[in-house]
Amino acid sequence: MPSNQPDVIFLVLDTQRVDRLSCYGYEQPTSPNIDAFAAGATRFKVAIAPGQWTIPSHASMFTGLYPSQHQMQQSYSVMPPHLKTLAERLQDGGYYTAAFCNNPLVGVINNGLRRGFYSFLNYSGLLSSKPNQAGIPSSFLDKYRQVFKRILANALNKVQDAFARSDWLLSLSFTPLMVPLWQTALSFKGNTRKSLDDAAKLLIERKGVEADQPVFTFINLMGTHMPYHPPREFIEKFAPNVLKDRDAQTYLRRFNSDVYGWLAPLMGALGDQQKDTLDGMYDAEVAAQDVQVGQFLDQLKRSGRLDNTYVVVCADHGEHLGEKQLIGHSLSIYNELVQVPLIIHDPSDSIERETVRDDVVSTRCLFHTVLSAVGLATPEESELSLEHQDSSETLEAVDPDRCVYAEAVPPQNVLNLIQRRQPELVSQHACDQTRRAVWVGNHKLIETDQNPPELYDVQDDPNESLDLSEIFPEMVESLHDSLSAFSQDAEEHQALYSQARATGFDDPEVRRRLKDLGYLEE
């Protein structure tokens, strides 16, 4: 007999832009499987990530707090010991907790995000972790695994360097023979297929799980993160110009091998061909990952497990692909980064299925929502769950505690790199300044430490192309008051916590892995 408490799947599509999923109105058919899942679930049209990149956003989803409250804002940050994570709360409530993670910032660095998991498997390239093999001492395995990793790492680095410099090898990389190698070994984005298969196996076969014990499964997928090396069939469909045009191939090769280029603002706008290349390759990655997510969900459905499983599908942040002269997800707080997909399947129908929610919600409230769904939330936490939130906020009656906020604190390693290489960009794009935003109704106010405020009607102008701050100064003032109270609270929290450094962050292999993904300066 199944447990009265549902299983929980927390699936994070790392770096997934909301406007590149078909169910959110994208004209390209990038996500038929996620679309089908969303049709029978609840889709949130305006979900806001509290932070613009991996660590602060995951920490907020795991604690229910904004980045300035949990203080996980840098690559080396550590979760304050007094904060209990979602996994710890669920573990205390009787759940078997397991993670299948492809992002090293979540699964490799010992920064507190792994707390509360009985099992935490990493699929990050050469740092993949596996359960111990029975009968073989772990010390024996560890000794020879590290030697093998170092030898293989040196070999793979040389191969990757060759692919980054040769037109012929780039063309070869698009062939069916080479694509699996790029995906698993050379792309350094983990192994989507393996992580999803392992998660499905646990949920269906339940080895090591006690009878009637519910399972909490956290999954992080990195398919849409740079660099872009999707299978050829998806390139043919979404980026055919890359297969035909040598200039497009040259640009893509340089882009994929230029980690600095994933972080720094652009000196000018992308050319049409460059923009088309990035858009097409990103869409191809979205579509390739969608197929694998669909296979995962289908396994659960055929097994009958989905009938008693609470499923959250979301993103930690989006991605700039040249908009506003920005690339990546380091510096801005525009919609390209902080408005994310959020789809929830609730088997109990506490959150009504087959519906679309129009109100603005924060993904930090997923912490409260999951705990509420499984009966482990306090009354105060239940009030913050998405089930109990309403969209009645107006500019005439703003409750700062019910507003939705986001924060973008510049990653220090990115700022250091830009200051060394292109210091003029720091002042030009305010790279060294903290950004905060507040949403009330259809409007969003962005404030930067030293720059003028920006006001947008995000319903009529989702691309944030028309700044309304000078047209509606009263609206700016009203939203500013709410944001000022939030900012003051943020400063008080920052003064309370010391910036401890994550253990293992300085390990040479860990740092090399983070450099591969652009999270550390050279």
Map the helices and strands.
Elements: E1 7-13, H1 32-39, E2 42-48, H2 54-63, H3 67-70, H4 86-92, E3 96-101, H5 104-107, E4 119-122, H6 138-163, H7 167-173, H8 179-186, H9 192-205, E5 215-221, H10 232-238, H11 240-244, H12 246-257, H13 272-303, E6 309-314, E7 320-321, E8 327-328, H14 335-338, E9 339-340, E10 342-345, E11 355-362, H15 366-373, H16 379-383, E12 404-408, H17 412-421, H18 423-428, E13 435-440, E14 443-448, E15 454-457, H19 473-496, H20 508-516
Parallel strand pairs: 1-5, 1-6, 2-11, 3-4, 3-5
Antiparallel strand pairs: 2-9, 2-10, 6-10, 7-8, 12-13, 13-14, 14-15
Helix pairs in contact: 1-13, 9-13, 10-13
Domain Sulfatase N-terminal: 6-375
Protein name: Sulfatase
InterPro entries: Alkaline_phosphatase_core_sf, GAG_Ulvan_Degrading_Sulfatases, Sulfatase_N
Structural notes for this entry:
Helices cover about 40% and strands about 15% of the residues. It is an alpha/beta fold. Strands 1, 2, 3, 4, 5, 6, 9, 10 and 11 form a 9-stranded mixed β-sheet that branches. Strand 3, helix 5 and strand 4 (about 120) form a beta-alpha-beta unit. Helix 9 (about 190-205) runs parallel beside helix 13 (about 270-305). It comes from Leptolyngbya cf. ectocarpi LEGE 11479. This is Sulfatase.
